[in-house]
Structures are given as structure tokens and as C-alpha cells.
Amino acid sequence: MRRLIFLAVLLISFSVGSQELNCKLVVNAQQTGNENVQVFKTLEKQLNEFVNNTRWTSKIFKIQERIECSMVINVQNYQSDSFQASIQVQSARPVHNTFYASSLYNFNDKDFNFNYLEYQNLNFNTTQFESNLVSVIAFHVYMILGMDADSFELDGGDIYYKQARDIVSYSQQSNFKGWEPPKGGAQTRSALIKNILSPTFKEIHSVLFNYHFKGLDLMAKDVKKGKTAIVSSLMELESLNKRRPNSFLLRVFFDAKADEISDIFSGGPNVNIADLVSMLSKVAPMHSNKWKNIKF
């Protein structure tokens, strides 16, 4: 009997520990004027179960290693099984030897129309389009996984970014917005994944790694050395910006990191920041009010 109990506990622990995400998913339907309709509550419950219970990778995550993230679906309108919405996706990464979590991914996806019948099965297929609802959610899951992996190992996120690219490829046949090949300054899912996998933006991967693993993770032990490493990592963005000024990918990066960068360099100890402030003002002028707070 004790052995059976032990095996049951072991299996439960393995199952729980194998999931990659700890995601809070919210369906906000206030804009519809009918936010209390049961279908929204059912959708929210199903999506929470879908995101948190699906095995997205072959990697085993311990409970404490699960990636903290959130998705907020804002439904603007719906009719029968047709929903018009947007989705705000965020994820964070723990910093070594601290209780602090660093924002990694912050994306407002405005092209999120989908069809959903209450209690319909939500199934993810790695090679085939099932529904726009599933494809959009899965795309952002793999972006979360990629960004997180990049912050712990140089180019560690490639395997997940490539899965996100596959989702884009097979979802383009659906004719839903956001999947179409990027044109001009398009800020879509397809533009995002094309940029992050392009050699043109190769510095973004080393920045994510050096900023977090060699910078933030060191600050609990040596604040000044960690801050210096963060300065060095951010300065890599200067060459990227010269190659592709005001790029979509840089805007995505700073949407997640601008507040944190301002906070890091708004207190001591002193490090050389003259070149950093100048670079940030050129590369991310939309956050100029935050760069003014940098003093140390």
C-alpha cells in the first residue's frame, strides 16, 4: 500500500512539474456590455486549462521553474460564435538570489478575431491549423518560452521561435489578420517572428542573455558589476538600430524593459552611463521621459 501511495505521489509530482507555464488568463468582456454572459466564463476557464495543462515542450520543468505569465483577452464585440478581440501578453523571469521578477515579453496583439463555441475542444497541433483561437495562444506561448530560454542561454530560444514560425506558416491559410506576410512597418505576429529569427537582428539574442544572465543575476552579489554588464549588453542595441532604425523588435524589447532600465540606473552605485543615456535616447525616444530619470 505504501508503495502504491508513493508511486501515485511520484506520478502526480511528475505531471505537475512537467508543465512549463504558470499563466493567469483573463477574458475581459466589459466592452461588449454583456460581460456576465456564461460563454466568457467558460472560455476563460477552458483557456486557463489549455495553456497551463498542455505540454508545450519535451523539457521537464519543476514547479518552481514554471514561467510566470499572463494573457488578458479584451473582447470588443461578439455575435454567435464570432469574437472580435485583442490580447495583451506578458511574461517575467526570476532574478537569481532575489524575489524580483524581470519583465521579458510584453506584447499587445490587436489582431485577435476568432470563432468559439462554448465547450468546444481546444487542441493544439504542431503542424496543422486547428483554429485561430488556438494558433494565436500557442504562438504567444512559444514566444514566452523563447524569450525565457534566451535569457538563460545564448540562442537558447531558437527551438521555440522556430515553432512559433511554423504556427505562422500554417496559420496564414486561415486568412485571419496578424498572420499575413509583413509589409512595411507592420506590427504583427508574422513581423515579430520574422524579425527575431533574422540575422539582421542577431544582437537581440545576446542582449537578452547578457542583460539577464550576466547582468541582473549578478546584481544580488555585486550590484556595480551587474550594472556594468547591463550597460555593455544594452550598448549592443546601438549597432542594431543603425542597421534598422526604429524597428518593431526594438519597440517590443523596450515595451518590456524600459521601466526596469530606468529603475536600475536611478540609484547607486555609480557606473559610467553617459553613452548609455545617449544611446537610449536615440534608439528608444518614445521612452525619453524614463531616460531622464537615469542619474547613476
How does this structure look, described?
This protein has 296 residues and is α+β, with helices and mostly antiparallel strands. Mean pLDDT is 92; it is low at 1-17. It folds into 2 domains: 16-197, no CATH class; 219-291. It starts with a helix and ends in a 5-residue tail after the last helix. The protein is built from 11 helices and 5 strands, in the order αβαββββααααααααα.
- Terminal Cα span: 63 Å
Q: What class, by secondary structure content?
A: alpha+beta
Low-confidence stretches: 1-17
Number of domains: 2
Give the H and E element order.
HEHEEEEHHHHHHHHH
- The level of helicity is 40-55%
As a percent range, the share of strand residues is 15-25%
| Main sheet makeup | 5 strands, mixed
What's the alpha carbon Rg, rounded to whole Å? 21 Å
Overall pLDDT confidence: 92
Q: Note the quaternary state here.
A: single chain
Question: What is the 3D shape?
Answer: globular
Number of helices: 11
State the total count of DSSP E strands: 5
